[in-house]
């Protein structure tokens, strides 16, 4: 598997040395091809400057989406200001996160913290967006919509009538966000990826295949 730009290989225990070497060579060959393919796709990485030590950075989100999937306005901007302190904490005011970073917090932990802050500030907007899309399409019953950081998925759906959306979706074009929302809403009716599920998605989004291809052009954040 890839962790950032590092290839991590996990093997079964107690393999003979020659078997280990054979598996490693095969997996490296496969992963080299995958890695080369990914080099042409941009990674969603809005916090890179802050992780490199910059005291302030402004991120621009994709524009809000209508139920039809069109952007209604230019994207909002959120500013993150970081200063050292005794413990890590944050306050949100006037579209700005004022953050105190503990010297003891690791970079991966701080990176996750930044994504959590962004999810917190954008949660109301994503709930409104999902409700509008749901009202205009499937009208399924939802108990919860949650925006959260995910390493490998754009979204997920629960039988408890809730859906999770990757916070990284705030940085993709609105039609792609709409597709992921419809995809997860449809799982409330069809919990698998059977032909029946895809036919139902296609009845709402005839060009859904184009959206899946476009999503593959983005690399999810790595923490």
| Major sheet characteristics | 4 strands, mixed
Structural class: alpha/beta
Give the count of structural domains.
2
CATH architecture of the largest domain: 2-Layer Sandwich
Report the β-strand fraction as a percent range.
15-25%
Using the alpha-carbon principal axes, give the shape. Answer: flat
Work out the number of β strands. Answer: 9
From the 3D structure, determine the CATH topology of the largest domain: Zincin-like
Report the span from N to C terminus. Answer: 14 Å
Q: Quick check: average pLDDT? A: 87
Strand order of the largest sheet: 3-4-6-5
**Low-pLDDT runs:** none
- Output the number of helix runs: 6
The CATH homologous superfamily of the largest domain is called Metalloproteases ("zincins"), catalytic domain
What is the ordering of alpha helices and beta strands?
A: EEHHEEEEHEEEHHH
For the CA atoms, what is the radius of gyration?
20 Å
Describe the overall structure.
With 223 residues, this protein is α/β, with parallel strands linked by helices. It folds into two domains: 2-38, no CATH class; 48-215, Zincin-like, CATH 3.30.2010. It contains six helices and nine strands; from the N terminus they run E-E-H-H-E-E-E-E-H-E-E-E-H-H-H. The strands form three sheets. A four-stranded mixed β-sheet has the order 3-4-6-5, with helices on one face. A hairpin with a 2-residue loop joins strand 5 (89-93) and strand 6. The longest helix has 30 residues, at 107-136. The two termini are 14 Å apart.
């Amino acid at each position: 598997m890839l962790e950032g730009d590092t290839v991590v290989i996990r093997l079964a225990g107690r393999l003979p040395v020659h078997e280990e070497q054979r598996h490693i060579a095969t997996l490296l060959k496969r992963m080299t091809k995958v890695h080369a393919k990914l080099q042409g796709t941009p990674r969603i990485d809005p916090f890179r400057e802050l992780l490199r030590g910059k005291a302030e950075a402004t991120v621009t989100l994709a524009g809000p989406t209508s139920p039809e999937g069109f952007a209604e306005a230019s994207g909002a901007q959120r500013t993150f200001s970081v200063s050292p302190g005794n413990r890590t904490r944050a306050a949100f005011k006037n579209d700005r996160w004022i953050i105190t970073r503990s010297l003891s917090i690791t970079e991966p932990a701080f990176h996750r913290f930044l994504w959590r802050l962004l999810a917190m500030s954008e949660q109301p907007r994503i709930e409104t967006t999902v409700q509008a899309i749901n009202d205009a399409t499937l009208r399924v019953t939802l108990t919860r919509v949650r925006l959260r950081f995910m390493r490998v998925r754009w979204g997920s759906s629960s039988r408890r009538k809730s859906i999770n959306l990757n916070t990284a979706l705030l940085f993709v074009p609105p039609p792609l966000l709409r597709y992921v929302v419809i995809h997860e809403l449809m799982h409330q009716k069809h919990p698998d990826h059977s032909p029946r599920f895809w036919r139902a998605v296609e009845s709402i989004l005839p060009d859904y295949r184009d959206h899946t291809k476009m999503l593959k052009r983005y690399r999810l954040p790595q923490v």
